[in-house]
Amino acid sequence: MTADFDRRAFLDGLLAVGFVSTAAAMAYPVARYLVPPVSGEPETASAVAARAAELKPNSGKVFKFGNRPGIVVRTAEGELRAFSAVCTHLDCTVQFKADTSQLWCACHNGTYDLGGNVVSGPPPRGLEKFAVNVRGDGADAEIVVSRQA
Amino acid sequence: MSFIESDRGDRRGRRRDVYRSQLRVLSELCGCFFSVLFFVTPAAAQSAPAANSCLTCHTTQQDARLATPAALFAQQDVHRERGFACVDCHGGNPAATVKAQAHDAAKGYKGKPAGSQVIAACARCHSDAELMRRYAPKQRVDQAAEYATSTHGKRLASGDTNVATCASCHGAHGIRLVSDAKSPVFPTSVATTCASCHADATRMAGYKLPDGSPLPTHQLADYQTSVHYNALTKGNDLSAPTCNDCHGNHGAVPPGVGAIANVCGSCHAVFAEKFATSVHKQIFDKGCVECHSNHGVQRPSDAMLGVTGKGICQPCHTAEDKGDKGAAAAETMRTQFEQLKTAIEQSHALIARVKNAGIEVSDQELALREANTKLTLARTEMHAFEPALVAPIIKEGTTIVAGVDAAGQKGMGELKFRRGGLAISLGAILIVVVALALKVRHIDQRHRI
Do B338 and B302 meet the contact criterion of CB atoms below 8 Å apart? Predict the structure, then answer.
């Protein structure tokens, strides 16, 4: 009789532990969904910057590279180059200036050459360079910009 | 047969020996020629003799004043490395082993140059375009001419030998290239080199600024608190300005009245352009320095704009004077900056909450960057001191932030909807579980009956 009772109490206890553990395993993801942890986002590695037809020689286009702006340029010679469009001085967005064939920041008149190097003004260093690849042919070919390894 | 072959073999062998001997002599001659070509520099070939008794004698002197220059020159020195010797600056006879002959004035011995003699000694080569082209083709040759226009040069010409000459900054022996990080005129060292005289109150005593006030000696201390010093030394930005970038190096003078905005504008071009159109252009004798100081330029803040608290528009403008247009303009622009800044910060916080809930907000993050760009542009435009020019830029920024806020609120709505849906489905599951439990209990009870 005592042995039977002990066995039943043990099984009840085991079931209770199992039930609580299962409930906790279900509740934890729900709780983390409702109150998510602060987490970083992986950096964007690649983006389609433009279609080939959009970029005439000696022109540039600012595009979305993750949550930051990038700029892709087609030089007068037809070569494609891409950089981060975030000015290294105070994080303003740089733009392409066709008259000087340079990248220019309107905030404090910082200028960069088409190698991303500082030409004049207060920027302390050059722009981050990206790799450019063209996917497809013709006017609809995609200009794919990737972060360099 | 064997005799003939043996004779031919001997002759061939003798001929081979002759050829080898001739080749050896030829190669030795070539060796000597190339040794002379590569290891004897033009200057050495022109002026320096085979022996340099200057170093031999001076390095063994007990008096440090005589031994140290020779020791420094014998170590790393840009002139020695290019074949120049003591005699090129000091004259004398380096081949002599007796002091009287080595220091023979008839041999051009000048001893230790001082004052204008230093300028002349350096300029003898450094102002010679043809000579310099052989050693440093890109180097300018107008240093001596520039020096003559400097405050140092003018005072030296008037007989003041206390002023800096070439050797004061570059050193006299053990001279390194300007691009050498150990050079006293490398960008990170210029300020301390200038301060070795200019922070010395005793040495600066008696010197005055153009306005007649005593020449201060706290420039280095001020500069070391500045945003420029911080960028140069901590940000590793060698293009950040140090003394010579504003004052000039060889032609060093304090920027005169009216020239300061040009000097600052050589880097901060947009500010200089805006300032040139402002009402302050005619009033501020010291240009940019009136608000930003000179050596101790601090990182500017919005708090500087205004007539209360840390506002630097006071005491020229006052909050008490309700008719003061300048005070009103400053307060208007400051309020606009603060409003946009606060809106961007709040929007950032909202977007961060939405992003953390797993909702895509990269477009909004990009838009907030653009709003920040507008804020920076507005701060730049402020230097024209015309609120009407600032307002449209602030409005563009505010519009961007409003769009981001709307998207953020939509995201928060979506988040609430998802949480509500989760609560409802969890509640439904719970009801089913309870109902199932009750049903099982009911069935058990029926079976017992």
Answer: yes
Nearest to B85 by CA among B111, B113, B55: B55
- The structure tokens listed for A106 are 């309107």
Q: What pLDDT was estimated at residue A7? A: 83
- pTM score, two decimals? 0.75
Contact B376 A107 (CB under 8 A): yes
Does residue B312 lie in a domain region? no
In the predicted structure, residue B6 carries a pLDDT above the cut 90: no
Identify whether residues B368 and B422 lie together within a single domain.
Answer: yes
Q: What is the ipTM of this complex?
A: 0.74
CB B265 within 8 A of CB B273: yes
Nearest CA-CA partner of B241 in B187, B198, B178: B187
Over residues A78-94, the pLDDT tens digits come to 999 999 999 999 999 99
Q: Which CATH class is domain A46-147?
A: mainly beta
- Total Cβ atoms within 10 A of residue A94: 29
Q: Which of B243, B278, B299 is the last residue of a domain?
A: B299
> Structural domain of residue B342, as residue ranges?
328-448
Is there a contact between A61 and A72 (Cβ–Cβ < 8 Å)? yes
**Ramachandran category for residue A127: left, alpha or beta (phi over 0 → left; psi -120 to 50 → alpha):** beta
Check CB contact under 8 Å for A124 and B240: yes
**Minimal CA separation from B244 to chain A, in Å:** 17
Q: Determine the Cα–Cα distance for residues B232 and B214; give it in Å rounded to an integer.
A: 29
Q: Helices in chain A by DSSP H: which ranges?
A: 2-34
Name which of B273, B357, B362 is nearest A64 (Cβ-Cβ): B362
Single residue among B244, B279, B299 that ends a domain in this structure:
B299
With CB atoms and an 8 Å threshold, state whether A124 touches B231. Answer: yes
